[in-house]
């Protein structure tokens, strides 16, 4: 299974499905998997549901995936919607809360109806309120699984009815068996560029695997990027004047590497246990996300 770490959480979910397969009267709680993006929550759910439903996977399961990052816009679940989303020549159907309700009310083939919603916090308040009917009048043999980066983003009326499982970014110990997840030609690359991969991804498996999968086309850019990042660290550690810091940051921005530089710096300061600097970097990111002038921000950070 392509998910590192969170072994206890994996076992709990497997136990839910194992009990349900043996006992048709087993009560499925509403599940919320909380944790950072790209650490394997969606992959885990898809694997377990496929194993559980078997031949009925296509008839008794629907999923609403979050394409916000790929669409470059805010992607929301509405009350009533059945949009076709096309990404890389593939077509996905994105449903609204009403369509999810209709699906759950239909009869089943396997004995269960399962709905998986990725990043439930992208649901509009109106859609979330529409979904409440499902929780107020739960039907047997229904399972709803959500993911979210933070339960604080959700309505209390939703979280109060759910069983919440917290997933965390894998620690160093979890990466020891990485060879079991990679093709042979990628293991050597991983070992050689481990620090680069970890700093750019903040140790999130989904991002690490994506970088390795596309390594042949992006290797030269990553090497160049990392050289510039290390140059900045050298300037930072020697406490050289602000113009040198600013000129390197300017180069990073011009190459569209600013977000990756932020991840690099967070990883760097985390290893040094320098939480004061992490706070400054996160504050810088907040300002950038608020669309403040980036040139002014990097000059201010260089001071």
Task: Describe what this molecule looks like in 3D.
Helix 6 (125-136) links the parallel strand 5 and strand 6. The protein is of the alpha/beta class. The protein folds into 2 domains: 7-166, P-loop containing nucleotide triphosphate hydrolases (Rossmann fold, 3-Layer(aba) Sandwich); 172-302, no CATH class. The chain starts with 6 loop residues before the first helix and ends with a helix. A 5-stranded parallel sheet has the order 2-5-6-1-7, with helices on both faces. The model has no long low-confidence stretch (mean pLDDT 84). It contains 15 helices and 7 strands.
Topology record:
Blueprint lengths: L6 H16 L7 E5 L6 H13 L3 H4 E4 L3 H4 L10 E6 L2 E6 L1 H9 L7 E5 L7 H12 L5 E7 L7 H4 L2 E5 L17 H9 L1 H8 L3 H9 L1 H23 L4 H13 L3 H14 L3 H15 L4 H9 L1
Parallel strand pairs: 1-6, 1-7, 2-5, 5-6
Antiparallel strand pairs: 3-4
Helix pairs in contact: 1-2, 5-6, 9-10, 9-13, 11-12, 12-15, 13-14, 14-15
Keywords:
two-stranded antiparallel ribbon, globular, 7 strands, 303 residues, 5-stranded parallel beta sheet
Please sum up the structure shown:
The protein has 303 residues and is of the alpha/beta class. The protein is 53% helix and 13% strand.
The largest sheet is: 5 strands, parallel
Number of strands: 7
- Low-pLDDT parts are none
What's the CATH architecture name of the largest domain?
A: 3-Layer(aba) Sandwich
Physical arrangement of strands within the biggest beta sheet: 2-5-6-1-7
CATH topology of the largest domain: Rossmann fold
Mean pLDDT, nearest integer? 84
Number of separate structural domains: 2
* CATH uppermost class of the largest domain: Alpha Beta
Strand content: 5-15%
Quaternary arrangement of the chains shown?
Answer: single chain
- Number of helices in the DSSP assignment: 15
Helical content class: 40-55%
Shape: globular
- At the fourth level of CATH, the homologous superfamily of the largest domain is P-loop containing nucleotide triphosphate hydrolases
| Pattern of helices and strands | HEHHEHEEHEHEHEHHHHHHHH
Q: How far is it from the N-terminal to the C-terminal residue, by CA?
A: 47 Å
Radius of gyration: 22 Å
């Amino acid at each position: 299974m392509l998910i590192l770490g969170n072994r206890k959480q994996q076992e709990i979910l497997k136990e839910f499905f194992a009990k349900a397969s043996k006992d048709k009267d087993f009560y499925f709680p509403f599940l919320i998997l909380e944790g950072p993006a790209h650490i394997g929550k969606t992959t885990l759910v898809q694997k377990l549901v496929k194993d559980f439903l078997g031949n009925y996977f296509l008839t008794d399961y629907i999923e609403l995936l979050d394409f916000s990052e790929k669409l470059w816009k805010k992607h929301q679940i509405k009350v009533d919607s059945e949009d076709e989303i096309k990404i890389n020549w593939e077509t996905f159907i994105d449903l609204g809360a009403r369509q999810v309700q209709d699906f759950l009310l239909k009869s089943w083939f396997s004995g269960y109806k399962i709905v998986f919603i990725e990043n439930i916090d992208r649901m509009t308040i109106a859609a979330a309120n529409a979904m409440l009917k499902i929780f107020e009048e739960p039907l047997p043999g229904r399972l709803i699984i959500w993911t979210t980066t933070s339960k604080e983003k959700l309505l209390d009326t939703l979280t109060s009815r759910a069983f919440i499982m917290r997933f965390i970014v894998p620690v160093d110990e979890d990466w020891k068996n990485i060879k079991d997840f990679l093709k042979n030609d990628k293991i050597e690359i991983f070992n050689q560029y481990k620090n680069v991969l970890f700093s750019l991804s903040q140790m999130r498996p989904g991002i690490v695997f994506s970088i390795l999968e596309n390594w042949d086309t992006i290797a030269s850019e990553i090497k160049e990027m990392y050289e510039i990042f290390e140059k900045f660290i050298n300037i930072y550690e020697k406490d050289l004047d602000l113009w040198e810091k600013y000129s390197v940051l300017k180069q990073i921005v011009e190459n569209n590497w600013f977000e990756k530089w932020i991840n690099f710096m967070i990883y760097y300061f985390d290893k040094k246990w320098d939480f004061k600097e992490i706070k400054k970097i996160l504050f810088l990111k907040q300002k950038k996300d608020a669309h403040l002038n980036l040139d002014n921000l990097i000059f201010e950070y260089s001071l």
